Amino acid sequence: MDSLSGVSEELAEIEGQISDIFRALSNGFQKLEKIKDSNRQSRQLEELAAKMRECKRLIKEFDRESKDLEYKNDSGTNKMLSEKKQSMIKELNSYVALKKQYTSNLDNKRVNLFEGPGEGFAEENVLLASDMTNQQLMDQGNQMMDETDQAIERSKKVVHETIDVGTETATALKAQTEQMSRIVNELDSIHFSIKKASQLVKEIGRLQLIGALWLCFSLLWSVS
What is the pTM assigned to this prediction? Predict the structure, then answer.
């Protein structure tokens, strides 16, 4: 860890967390050998699988941080970081293979360590560290990260599409609200016009009544 501290405190911290997980995995498998009850063995394997998933995440984080520092590191430092990552992947794969062996021995339903397609070091593709070349490890790691990036891009696309639909919906609602407002204004205008017309009709009727009364009065006056 001391050599990494000179390169990056964050890399040194990540390596420390990974080392802690590897020690926990080693102790966990030693404890597993002493457990006789199959149910307790299954629970122990689940706990170990969770630690492996966390370790996988940290190795990916280590790789991303290493790549971010490539431009400022010399070739020797970059080579050291690459070898460090490959060593961690080999050790993790050896524990994955060991878990697979224990799971098989328990004759349980096989549990995928990393769920979903393209989610890392799938157990069926794990090789023992002694059987894997550095190129195989690099190819495997790159494929895993490419698939993760693709999944992130798909998620971003869904978010953008959701935002677009929400914007279109808001625009349509605004247009409908403005249309309803115009209709209400027109109804108010119509109501006012009807009210004025009603008043006018009443006024005309009143004038006609007065005229009729005046005519009757005039006739009566002339007769008398």
Answer: 0.47
